[in-house]
């Protein structure tokens, strides 16, 4: 018999468990497609199963017409689907359909990309099709033994260094090809490497692979991986990348050389010490591959292996452990100060101080924003000051101190500052907002576009504005009056970027239609069309003298054009993913480009030679900008940071950051002076509400934080995390006091018992609620009954009862003293994400992914009313301190306030640019805080609510 988990052969039919991996053998044989099952209109016939994982089953089969053996992988996520006994198709419960479809789309896309890769160390894909409510990937059938089997046959279970070099070189070559396509394997281990009789070294089983894609967001679904080899970010379901495969390859390299694996990442995270003890070059390679922090590892697998590939001799020894790569230097003399650029350095922008709010937002009651969210664009005024345009607003920052000198609360996709620094234009949705930066005064809204705006720019004299829109038009406006002067028609698809020449005579626009167009700014007449890009143009910029035009495109190239003739002069190649932003240095000698490949590159404009890469961002780079004197370069990224670079040396000088991922939980301290926000960036941040200032940051190892709660006396803070633990912190110092361990899956919610800090409750994806002694961290009680993940827990005001909401669509009410379930509240038709007691204890509110909020009688468990109005899932609910008002936050990007007694909707707060994940009232009922997946926390004034 064969183990379908580890592929061990020759197991006795009487064995219940695999002697090698311990898998339960009968369970692995369940729900397989029967032998002789035919697929794709009798094209293929199943013979028998070869292996299975959490997301699929691989079969040996044959092409009926060609009589050719093949391997077929069936998409079958066991947690999400069941095999139909009659037709062999898959059925998916309604509440798991979305997750199932998301992973199915990923399976198909990975198959499509792998099919395009013709590499000797990758299994060749021959077909891909959908039927039976799932998908099938047809691959060449390979024979041979796994690397794991070869290691088992060797003395000490290790290989000769030269053989190690051969294997790793093949794997690096294969992974470089998949990384180029945006696919990461994520399960590199000996059993997934096949050694064929013909000498091929083939990487197999992409069942854990993930494709990098803007259309597939983060998922809470469990990823398939092997814990002994996996990096922390994979275990923690965080953002992955080439660094993740490099970590696993480093684990594998150490195992092949020594016969032993380094300690798993989780063991090292909780304090197990380890340092590699190898000879060079292996010591340097393993050490650079295995840091626990992803950003401390190389992000290019070929560059990581390059020194070894070129310098290891036949005995496996390196002549020189480190080969410094040549770094072209830009002579400082060519970066001399230049005249002020159109980025704007006037006194208005520099001298303004304060916090300013768009009038219609002020009317809604917004008081303060914490965090900035995704950063769309940056304008560098000098080596210290930068204007940052972000999802949460626009601000002038001192990059050295990270201090916000002024902030404007006004959502914008893009923005521009006039050359004299006195005017600010913000482009958001279909509106341009114009501000006076000498006074922080809102001037006017400019309407006219019929779809979203993605670019806006002032003419050099500040008299005119140009805007590019998703309505396929460029429009010219009188900045003083807001009057539309010209509508420039010609683009056949959305306009993504516009730029004026320095003399203001010409306007360039880049579009999704793959063209750059040049216009006469005074008449709006199209002068010429620049064609050559093979995908949409994301950014355009004129050289300072107006002679040249540069464009960055989705086709991964930067192109330089002669502005007078429209002739393409050169292509700058090097980026491995779309180019999102381009900029000339003030003297015009250098070009900077930012890309989805997370790099900034500096180029010599005259030759197109790449001078250097600036590495550090861990997400796509949205914007690049030179300082007016050309000495510095700023870059803004979707990792929610701005980084300042020394342009001559390529050295990072400083960075501006706050939460770098979505904010999942909020809590006010008892006196309402401070707000804690917990984020998927592994931090809890404590904010001073009056000053809008971050006080301290609590970092939680490497794993995603799900929930935060203050103790009733405000002295302690509890957090629940994806590493299955509850942590207790000293709120005054930020010091971790203890970890409460016992849950076997991520902790989604934590709550302190009222009136004292004696007890702490936690709800987990292990389907349980647990009660802890906060003083000693001892588990007191385990409440079992939910049949799916527990997403939220809440104590009743008197501390006698506990409510829990679950993905089993129910709310349960528990007697804490007896550990007994009192009521099961049924009615929601999708997962319950949040529960909250009213302060008087009479009512319980629940928010669900069925888009409703429901109000329950706590004494009887009876549903009192259903609050409808949200157009998407409800993630969070909270009662006001007087029990009169109920707040709800939703994936429709809104916060809604309801009259608890009647269910009447009394107010809606807009302007989050992502789903709202948490809401909380301050104890004095003055404020409501809302946290969003956009990485921003907003504070709303609700003191005037009259209920």
Automatic annotation (TrEMBL):
InterPro entries per record: Kinase-like_dom_sf, Prot_kinase_dom, Protein_kinase_ATP_BS, Ser/Thr_kinase_AS, WD40/YVTN_repeat-like_dom_sf, WD40_PAC1, WD40_repeat_CS, WD40_repeat_dom_sf
Ranges for domain Protein kinase: 44-309
Start-end of each WD repeat: 446-487, 488-529, 530-571, 572-613, 614-655, 656-697, 705-739, 740-782, 783-824, 825-866, 867-908, 909-947
Location of the region described as Disordered in the Swiss-Prot/TrEMBL record: 327-346
A Pfam family per the record: Beta-prop_WDR3_1st
Alphabetical keyword list: ATP-binding, Kinase, Nucleotide-binding, Repeat, Transferase, WD repeat
An example Gene Ontology molecular-function term: kinase activity
Residues that, per the record, bind ATP: 73
Record flagged with keyword Kinase: yes
Protein name: Protein kinase
Gene source species: Laspinema palackyanum D2a
């Amino acid at each position: 018999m064969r183990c379908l988990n580890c592929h061990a052969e020759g197991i006795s039919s009487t064995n219940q468990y695999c002697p090698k991996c311990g898998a339960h053998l009968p369970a692995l044989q369940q729900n397989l497609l029967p032998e002789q099952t035919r697929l794709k209109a009798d094209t293929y016939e199943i013979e028998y199963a070869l292996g299975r994982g959490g997301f699929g089953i691989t079969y040996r089969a044959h092409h009926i017409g060609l009589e050719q053996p093949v391997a077929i992988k069936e998409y079958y996520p066991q947690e999400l689907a069941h095999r139909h006994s009659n037709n062999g198709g898959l059925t998916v419960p309604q509440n798991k359909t979305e997750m199932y479809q998301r992973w199915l789309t990923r399976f198909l896309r990975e198959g499509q990309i792998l099919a395009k890769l013709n590499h000797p160390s990758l299994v060749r894909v021959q077909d891909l099709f959908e039927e039976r409510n799932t998908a099938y990937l047809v691959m060449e059938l390979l024979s041979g033994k796994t690397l794991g089997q070869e290691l088992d046959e060797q003395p000490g279970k290790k290989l000769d260094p030269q053989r190690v070099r051969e294997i790793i070189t093949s794997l690096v070559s294969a992974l470089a090809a998949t990384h180029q396509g945006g696919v990461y394997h994520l399960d590199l281990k000996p059993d997934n490497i096949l050694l064929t009789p013909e000498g091929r070294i083939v990487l197999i089983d992409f069942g854990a692979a993930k494709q990098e894609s803007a259309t597939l967001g983060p998922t809470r679904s469990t990823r398939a991986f092997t814990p002994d080899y996996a990096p922390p970010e994979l275990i923690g379901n965080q953002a992955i990348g080439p660094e993740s495969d490099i970590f696993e390859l480093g684990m594998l390299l150490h195992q092949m050389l020594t016969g032993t694996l380094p300690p798993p990442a989780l063991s090292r995270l909780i304090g197990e010490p380890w340092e590699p003890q190898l000879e060079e070059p292996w010591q340097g390679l393993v050490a650079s591959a295995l840091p626990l922090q992803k950003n401390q590892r190389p992000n290019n697998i070929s560059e990581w292996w390059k020194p070894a590939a070129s310098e290891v001799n036949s005995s496996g020894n390196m002549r020189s452990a480190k080969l410094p790569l040549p770094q072209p230097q830009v002579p400082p003399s060519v970066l001399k100060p230049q005249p002020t650029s159109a980025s704007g350095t006037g006194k208005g922008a520099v001298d303004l101080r304060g916090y300013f709010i768009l009038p219609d937002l002020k009317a809604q009651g917004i008081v303060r924003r914490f965090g900035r969210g995704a950063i769309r664009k940056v304008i560098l005024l000098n080596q210290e000051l930068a204007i940052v345009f972000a999802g949460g607003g626009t601000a002038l920052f001192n990059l050295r101190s990270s201090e916000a000198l002024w902030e404007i609360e006004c959502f914008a996709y893009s923005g521009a500052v006039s050359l004299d620094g006195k005017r600010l234009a913000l482009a958001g949705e279909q509106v341009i907002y114009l501000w006076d930066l000498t006074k922080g005064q809102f001037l006017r809204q400019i309407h006219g576009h019929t779809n979203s705006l993605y670019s806006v720019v002032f003419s050099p004299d500040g008299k005119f504005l140009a805007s590019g829109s998703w309505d396929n038009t460029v429009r010219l406006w009188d900045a003083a009056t807001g009057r539309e002067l010209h509508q420039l028609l010609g683009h056949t698809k959305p306009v993504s970027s516009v730029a004026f020449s320095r003399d203001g005579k010409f306007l360039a626009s880049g579009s999704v239609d793959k063209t750059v167009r040049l216009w006469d700014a005074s008449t709006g007449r199209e002068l010429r069309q620049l064609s050559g890009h093979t995908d949409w143009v994301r950014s355009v910029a004129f050289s300072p003298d107006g002679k040249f035009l540069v464009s960055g495109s989705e086709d991964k190239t930067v192109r330089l054009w002669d502005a007078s003739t429209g002739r393409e002069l050169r292509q700058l190649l090097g980026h491995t993913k779309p180019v999102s932003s381009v900029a000339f240095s003030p003297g015009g000698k250098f070009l900077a480009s930012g890309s989805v490949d997370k790099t900034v590159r500096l180029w010599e404009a005259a030759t197109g030679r790449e001078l250097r890469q600036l590495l550090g961002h861990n997400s796509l780079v949205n914007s690049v900008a030179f300082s007016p004197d050309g000495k510095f370069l700023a870059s803004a990224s979707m990792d929610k940071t701005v980084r300042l670079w020394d342009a001559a040396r390529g050295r990072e000088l400083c960075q501006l950051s706050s939460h770098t991922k979505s904010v999942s939980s909020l809590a006010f301290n008892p006196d309402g002076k401070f707000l804690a926000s917990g984020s998927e960036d592994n931090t809890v941040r404590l904010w001073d509400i009056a000053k809008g200032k971050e006080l301290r940051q609590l970092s939680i190892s490497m794993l995603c934080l799900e929930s935060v709660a203050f103790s009733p006396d405000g002295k302690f803070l509890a957090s629940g995390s994806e590493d299955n633990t509850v942590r207790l912190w000293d709120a005054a110092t930020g010091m971790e006091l203890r970890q409460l361990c016992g849950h076997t899956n991520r902790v989604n919610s934590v709550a302190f018992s009222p009136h004292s800090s004696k007890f702490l409750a936690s709800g987990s994806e292990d389907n349980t609620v647990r009660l802890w002694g906060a003083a000693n961290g001892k588990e007191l009680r385990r409440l079992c009954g939910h049949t799916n993940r527990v997403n939220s827990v809440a104590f009743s005001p008197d501390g006698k009862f506990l409510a829990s909401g679950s993905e089993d669509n129910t709310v349960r009410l528990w007697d804490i003293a007896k550990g007994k379930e009192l009521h099961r509240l049924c009615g929601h038709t999708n997962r319950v994400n949040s529960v909250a007691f009213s302060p008087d204890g009479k009512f319980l509110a629940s928010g669900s992914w069925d888009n409703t909020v429901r109000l329950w009688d706590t004494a009887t468990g009876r549903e009192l009313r259903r609050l409808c109005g949200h157009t998407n899932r409800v993630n969070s609910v909270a009662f006001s301190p007087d029990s009169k008002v109920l707040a709800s936050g939703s994936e429709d990007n809104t916060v809604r306030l309801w009259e608890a007694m009647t269910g009447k909707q009394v107010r809606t707060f807009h302007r989050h640019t992502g789903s709202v994940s948490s809401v909380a009232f301050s104890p004095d009922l003055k404020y409501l805080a809302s946290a969003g997946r956009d990485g921003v926390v907003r504070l709303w004034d609700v003191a005037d609510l009259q209920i």
